[in-house]
């Protein structure tokens, strides 16, 4: 059963050291989260703080995987981070701890029913990156995406909760997971060249071979006969199906949590639209949205337009 969380904090107001820890996490989120930050600005204070703590911890894990340390050192750092997560889970981090991210995450986990095991899954996914794993099929890539993104969706739902009386709330966790997959597949398409330049290829090997793109494209050039547009459109269709399923989550959330999710997901859907219109753009560099467009998407989410649009589409499909 998905957690139901309404209103604000479930504990007393945070102490000064905890507030300082949350401020540290919010500064990290504001400086580095880009798309994520537009959504969580729409949340009430307690939920925004908790989401910032989740982001700051997740960012630490990602930075280890993406950093320049040797693989053995990365593996050791990831296991140290897993041990820290164990301390957070067991309530062994107090407000005087010197690690503000751990302090904030510990407080957030007391405030909300956050399934912290999702952060273990994130670490597992980054370990796959460090080991240089590749994915032959979509099913294999999907398992990776569930670790690094589906888990984040489920963690976030622990903060958002489901609205009282929401129909189908027992499936909320599945929808949050699926929405995470949609966002991650969009990320993979957006970062194709950057990842290839770093020696990483996430798209399924069988898809690359099917469209003649299995020789790589780190330099932005394709082998003769490659159908890169066909490859991109194939993955875009897959991502759109995931978005359609994941967006079923929106009516299950309270207004501000739904606005947060709609803003974050809406930014990625617009990125997907751009990639679909001009597939080769991702070979020239990272495709992004200008700040004014992200702000528009956030306002649209707060107004409930995305949730109503999803509901209308579902009604048409079932009519």
Let me know the largest β-sheet: none
CATH homologous superfamily grouping of the largest domain: Farnesyl Diphosphate Synthase
What's the overall average pLDDT, rounded? 89
In the CATH scheme, the class of the largest domain would be: Mainly Alpha
> What structural class do the secondary elements suggest?
mainly alpha
Radius of gyration using CA atoms only = 20 Å
Which bin fits the share of residues in helices? 55-70%
Shape designation? globular
CATH topology of the largest domain: Farnesyl Diphosphate Synthase
Number of helices: 15
What series of H and E elements makes up the topology?
Answer: HHHHHHHHHHHHHHH
Low-confidence stretches: 4-10
Strand content: under 5%
CATH architecture of the largest domain: Orthogonal Bundle
Count of all domains: 2
How far is the first residue's CA from the last residue's CA? Answer: 29 Å
> How many distinct beta strands?
0
Task: Name the descriptors.
319 residues; mainly alpha; 2 domains; 0% strand
What's the helix and strand layout?
Elements: H1 16-32, H2 35-40, H3 45-66, H4 71-89, H5 100-111, H6 117-130, H7 138-160, H8 172-190, H9 192-197, H10 205-210, H11 228-246, H12 255-277, H13 281-284, H14 291-302, H15 305-318
Helix pairs in contact: 1-3, 1-5, 3-5, 3-6, 3-7, 4-5, 4-6, 6-7, 7-8, 8-11, 8-12, 11-12, 12-14
